[in-house]
Amino acid sequence: MNNEFQPKLISVLAEGYSLARLKADAIAGLTVAIVALPLSMAIAIASGVTPDRGLFTAIVGGFLVSALGGSRHQIGGPAGAFIVLVAATVTAHGIEGLLLATAMAGVFLMLAGLLRLGDYVKFIPYPVTVGFTAGIAVIIFSSQITELLGLTLPAREPGPLIEKLPVLAEALPTLNPAAAAVAFLTIATILMLRRFRPSWPGLLIAVGVASLAATLLHLPVETIGTRFGGIPRSLPVPHLPSFSPELAQAVLPDAIAFALLGAIESLLSAVVADGMTGRRHRSNIELIGQGVANIGSALFGGMCVTGTIARTATNVRAGGTSPFSGMLHAVFLLVFMAVAAPLASYIPLASLAGVLAIVSWNMVERPAFAALLKSSRGDAVVLLATFLLVIFRDLTEGIIVGFTLGALLFINRMSKSVTVMPHEEESEHPLKNTDSDTVVYRIGGAFFFGAAATVGSVLDRIADRYSNLVLDCSAVSFMDSTAANVIAGTIRKAEKAGVRVFIAGANPDFRHLLETHEVRSPEVEYVETIKVARTLIREARPPEA
């Protein structure tokens, strides 16, 4: 099997898997499962579906992500980044539409991996990822204000932030002090445990404390039991999502958005794990594994699956050594659901909203955001454009516009890095001043379409003023077809003017590219160095009388 498409699980087994590693992975898997239990339910509720679907996603999808993916430490499950997309899909197309979109996204992810598109996701500019993540955090927090304060809305809460804020402001008189107190208790407990007992499972303890307080004090707050009737104690029987050409066409944009966001989120998570461990993930098999996991999640009634940065980092810090930790995390979640399902009915929704409030705060990379605002005007524009479009327009639109602006910024910067100037180094034995019929120009840097106009204008000015033109390409680090076409145009103009042209220092790849653009002998002479070109020019000059 091609190593590129070999799951990391197979690599781990080939290395030899010991009992000591199994113990370490079991401890890490249990730690992550404790974190994932309340978080999966909170994300599902915030996405407009029942909490059990979040657990189905974490169990089935999480197991398949670890078993079939390209990272040793990746933890898969429902992610906060999908909340807005999933909620919009459920509102427009119902649960069956969500399941079909999730399965279709899985197919798209598998195709992306097979086509090796995972290699290109890494080229998404850093300001885009920071702005996108911060925008998602704002959206998640705004979606939890109703539950945090126990507000009663006259109608369904609007999705867009601009429409949501006036509705929330009008509903402030309906604030439920008990719900707000439960949310505050949850947030305070998490922060205190993080400060004084960072090794303890803060999320689960905070939810447990809030649930106990709400139950013992008979607080008038909504719980999982009062709104959803609790959660089941086992996985459902797998079944295919409802399918029709009309429904598939309707959810196609959602499926594409799921796949795009899932690819970005999962590979970013894998990169974070690589940075923490010194390992390297396999991006294309990771996408294939994510694709299979999304299809599996849809079959069991779950929603979108992706690699999750926070849970993956928790896995690494807890000592996970292989994909078995992620697989065991899914097994532990299944055990928790089977044993403790009745207790979930007592969890206040305000407490889960408090968990997501903490998650959204942690998602914002505040030092990176501030640094990018100060680094350069271009980076700040990309960052803010992505951030604001994600909040006020659309997630996918924010990514696309941010990436486009980042690409244009890169092209502009690279175009300024190319140089084209007269060559005047004495060490090359320059022609004497009396040799006014020859000019030597050196091109350096990345000679590509972004710099083609600048270089072309310089060459056009000098191509027909001399009898001999030497272009030194030895310092060109990259050349594309547009650049080759510019040189071809210069050669044609020089040929009409009777100018003899030399190209010095072109490596075999550059020469092949130039020759495909008709830059061939005898119109141009390829030489190894400028010195050789000057020697040929002198030899062709008639002897002095």
From TrEMBL:
Predominant subcellular localization, coarse grouping: membrane
Keywords in alphabetical order: Membrane, Transmembrane, Transmembrane helix
Transmembrane segments: 26-47, 54-75, 81-111, 123-145, 175-193, 200-219, 255-275, 287-310, 330-359, 380-411, 439-459
Location of this chain's protein in the cell: Membrane
GO biological process, one term: transmembrane transport
Superkingdom: Bacteria
GO cellular component, as recorded: membrane
Membrane topology: Multi-pass membrane protein
Gene3D superfamilies (UniProt xref): STAS domain
Entry keyword annotation includes Nucleotide-binding: no
Stretches assigned to the STAS domain: 428-540
UniProt xrefs under Pfam families: STAS (PF01740), Sulfate_transp (PF00916)
PANTHER family per record: SULFATE TRANSPORTER
Name of the featured protein: SulP family inorganic anion transporter
Species, as recorded: Rhizobium daejeonense
Lineage, broadest ranks: Bacteria, Pseudomonadati, Pseudomonadota, Alphaproteobacteria, Hyphomicrobiales
